[in-house]
């Protein structure tokens, strides 16, 4: 695990925290299905997978607002409209998990870290109630000691609160921890928590190359960390 040791002062990290969507799992096909069904029920045209791929990463509420706006910018969308659409989206998405799949290399890395007794956590902006069932569905249910969802704490990434909370629970200093994500929010949260950040190149960073965010390391597959 040479890259991991290089990021943590020559030692394996004691704690590795992972983003979920776009990092461990490709959930966009299911999210797009739920978004499109929501939009059609509201009398609007469906958005399609490629647009939804650029809209995800900031939690369900922002995804719904972007879908209603038809754009990344969603300031003009009203709160009442958002609440109605969000409730419908969450109900639909609860039954839309058939197309979500693991990215290559994820299981290999998690198995190696688990074998090395490295503590593992998920820190995501996805609503918490969806996270554990999704992890179970894709075969990752037994790996993570802590799960922090987008509604677990008052703050969401890019705020570092969730990362700081997990480090506190684990009794781990920032120099002994690592965060793995795919988006600007992930890099900013890790930077604010003073934690090295590995970013994957295949994720959902709103259509922008993740290297622009200057993470500690960019990989094309998580097996590159081994």
Automatic annotation (TrEMBL):
Transmembrane segments: none annotated. Its EC number is 3.1.3.18. It comes from the Bacteria. It catalyses: 2-phosphoglycolate + H2O = glycolate + phosphate. Its cofactor is Mg(2+). Keywords: Carbohydrate metabolism, Hydrolase, Magnesium, Metal-binding. Pathway: Organic acid metabolism; glycolate biosynthesis; glycolate from 2-phosphoglycolate: step 1/1. Specifically catalyzes the dephosphorylation of 2-phosphoglycolate. Is involved in the dissimilation of the intracellular 2-phosphoglycolate formed during the DNA repair of 3'-phosphoglycolate ends, a major class of DNA lesions induced by oxidative stress. Belongs to the HAD-like hydrolase superfamily. CbbY/CbbZ/Gph/YieH family. This is Phosphoglycolate phosphatase.
């Amino acid at each position: 695990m040479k890259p991991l040791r290089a990021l943590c002062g020559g030692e394996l990290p004691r704690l590795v925290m992972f983003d979920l969507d776009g990092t461990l799992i490709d959930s966009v096909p299911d999210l797009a299905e739920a978004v499109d069904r929501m939009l059609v029920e509201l009398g609007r045209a469906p958005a399609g997978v490629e647009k939804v791929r650029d809209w995800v990463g900031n939690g369900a509420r922002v995804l719904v607002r972007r879908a209603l706006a038809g754009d990344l910018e969603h300031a003009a969308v009203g709160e009442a409209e958002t609440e109605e659409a969000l409730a419908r989206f969450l109900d639909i998405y609860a039954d839309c998990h058939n197309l979500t799949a693991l990215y290559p290399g994820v299981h290999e890395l998690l198995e190696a870290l688990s074998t090395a007794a490295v503590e593992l956590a998920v820190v995501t902006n996805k609503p918490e109630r969806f996270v554990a069932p999704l992890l179970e569905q894709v075969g990752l249910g037994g790996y993570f000691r802590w799960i922090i969802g987008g509604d677990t704490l008052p703050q969401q990434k890019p705020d570092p609160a969730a990362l700081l909370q997990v480090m506190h629970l684990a009794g781990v200093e920032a120099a002994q921890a690592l965060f793995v994500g795919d988006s600007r929010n992930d890099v900013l949260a890790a930077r604010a928590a003073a934690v090295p950040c590995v970013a994957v190149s295949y994720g959902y960073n709103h259509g922008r190359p993740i290297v622009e965010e200057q993470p500690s390391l960019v990989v094309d597959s998580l097996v590159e960390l081994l």
